[in-house]
Amino acid sequence: MRDISTLIIGAGQAGLAMSHCLSQRSIEHVLLERGQVANSWRTERWDSLRLLTPNWQSRLPGYTYTGDQPNGYRTMPQTIDFLSGYANQIAAPVDSETTVLSVDTSDRGYRVKTNRGDWTCRTLVMASGACNIANIPACAAELPGDIASLTPLTYRNPDQLSGGGVLVVGASATGVQLASEVQRSGRQVILATGEHVRVPRTYRGHDIKWWMDQTGVMDMTLAEVDDIRRARHVPSLQLIGSPTQETISLDSLQAIGVQIAGRVMNIHDGKIQFSGSLANVCRLADLKMNRLLTQIDDWIDAEAPGGVTEASYRLRDTIIPSDPLLQLDLKAAGIETVIWATGFKPDYSWLNVPVITPRGELRHQGGVVDAPGLYALGLPFLRRRKSSLIDGVGDDARDLSRHLASYLGQTVAEAA
Amino acid sequence: MTQTQSANEQLNGVNVGALLGAREALENAPEAAEFTWKATSEWKDGAHTRMEMNGFFGLGEEHARSKTFTIDSDHPEVFAATDVAPTPIEIVLSGLAGCLTAGIASVAENRGIKLNSVKATLEGDMNLYGILGVDSNVRNGFSAVRVRYDIDADASDEDIAALVAQSQKRSAVFDIITNPTNVFVTVA
């Protein structure tokens, strides 16, 4: 049994950022990584995925992009290289191929069992990701057995699909990207959408992510939102990182032949039922997009930044089919695959500390978990809107490392 | 209930403070959020039926209303009925209007928007081949429902559109009409 001040579970952007911050404070620590650095990016992403954020937007503590394509979007191999470069630069003490089996409280902190030996630690940082498990609605269990069921964690490329039609459920970043790729592969796609967040890829000459960064939207903190639960569950933006800065939307998908329908409500007897609320969820998304663009326009008027030559404009409202699909007989419609792009959740099955709410959410205040010396990092809106981004986790790591250092100082003082 | 507003602080007569307080209280008491709505009905004659509503279950107990409310339903003369009351179909449409409009008032209150008038016109399309059994491919119910709001409020067109959209998002009857529900009908 080894003992250490701090263990970090996970060596992705969150764990590495925390490692750097702890090193700066001379706090002894080790990162336990079930695979290699950036494991989720290596093993749980589809082949064509590129980051949704431009290359410049990856400012980690002590590390940033220095290449000649600041406005490009990283492929997965480039993302893995980028994070591996960070791990090397900060000499992160990573124990690779080390899977955490359980975490229990102990008299002086936490006892962590792994497949490569056990540890005790006084403080523990859970940086194991927000997307470990694909969230699938209960009705998925009613899918007929001869229809293939995939999640974004198991989907790799269209070649793994049969030639038949594909129902993509969910129209956030993942769903719209997969709908586009599968439709372009020659398979008919139906895309079912509940509430979603529509944005143009670029606006008035800049990437939408640049505007959201400049105008302070990404820096919004817990104190600035009135409903933190809602803020933590806002769907990801309908964006794709493509070399041509393509804007992806329900309209662009309909233009290549994707059929859109409302949210999946029920599956029974081989038939799938969609909500009749398609028009309203599209209207909500159009209104919300326009509010964001107005916020950007207002900021431009107030700040008068140089180089903005394009005038303000609005995108056309989403085109709603005149008679949206309400029910579909999967077999009769030739649907052979369903891809559930219905979100993700973190995996805490190894955590034997009573900090999970009945809804399965971690009980924490800005990453300070409701158990002494336990921290979480890299979750949606942990402390800021940007918390789950490579570009955003650094500020959270700085804040939480300060808290952690102070906690260790206190416990040392108590022991003395 | 952690907050209340006095009536003269309200723009639209909605005690939004009490609603938000209730939401907060119910988040910490999930059982109290389980409600059951109730109605009874008794056939009168022909297509004429009278429904009564008094009491619902919620917050862990039965509640009585201030009085027994009644709604009659009937069919129009072209259906060879006595036309003494609206059709059940029109009652469904009016339920949608009542629910969405209450929602608009609440959302407007919460957003500090004063409503001057809120009028809705509702239409539900129906092909009678369904209920008459002429064509099994035609459903009995609405093929489409349209609601047109005419709202005068101290707000921009976009803000008014957002009120209406948000109200649909939070509406029980909008959900009841747009999404499937398991219905169990038994005979005592």
Describe the structure concisely for a colleague.
Chain A is of the alpha/beta class and 416 residues long. Chain A is 26% helix and 22% strand. Chain B has 4 helices and 7 strands; from the N terminus they run αβββββαββαα.
Strand content of chain A: 15-25%
Structural class of chain B: alpha+beta
The description of the largest β-sheet of chain A is: 7 strands, mixed
Sum up the overall morphology of chain B in one term: globular
The structure class of chain A reads: alpha/beta
Approximate strand percentage of chain B = 15-25%
Q: How would you classify the quaternary structure?
A: heterodimer
Strand order in space, largest sheet of chain B: 1-2-5
Query: Number of helical segments of chain A?
Result: 9
Write down the secondary-structure element order of chain B.
HEEEEEHEEHH
pLDDT average of chain B, as an integer?
92
Number of strands of chain A: 23
Helix tally of chain B equals: 4
**Uncertain runs of chain B:** none
Write the layout of secondary structure elements.
The complex is a heterodimer of chains A (416) and B (188).
Chain A: E1 2-9, H1 13-24, E2 29-32, H2 39-43, H3 76-89, E3 94-95, E4 100-106, E5 109-114, E6 117-126, E7 133-134, E8 148-150, E9 165-169, H4 173-184, E10 189-193, E11 197-198, E12 202-203, E13 206-207, H5 208-214, H6 228-232, E14 237-238, H7 250-255, E15 259-262, E16 264-268, E17 271-274, H8 278-303, E18 327-329, E19 335-340, E20 344-345, E21 364-365, E22 368-369, E23 374-376, H9 393-415
Helix pairs in contact in A: 1-9
Chain B: H1 16-27, E1 40-45, E2 48-53, E3 56-58, E4 61-63, E5 69-73, H2 88-110, E6 115-125, E7 144-153, H3 157-170, H4 172-178
Antiparallel strand pairs in B: 1-2, 2-5, 3-4, 6-7
Q: Would you mind describing this structure in some detail?
A:
The complex is a heterodimer of chains A (416) and B (188). Helix content of chain A is 26%, strand content 22%. Chain A contains nine helices and 23 strands. The model of chain A has no long low-confidence stretch (mean pLDDT 96). Chain B is α+β, with helices and mostly antiparallel strands. Chain B is built from four helices and seven strands; from the N terminus they run H-E-E-E-E-E-H-E-E-H-H. Chain B has helices at 16-27, 88-110, 157-170, 172-178; strands at residues 40-45, 48-53, 56-58, 61-63, 69-73, 115-125, 144-153.
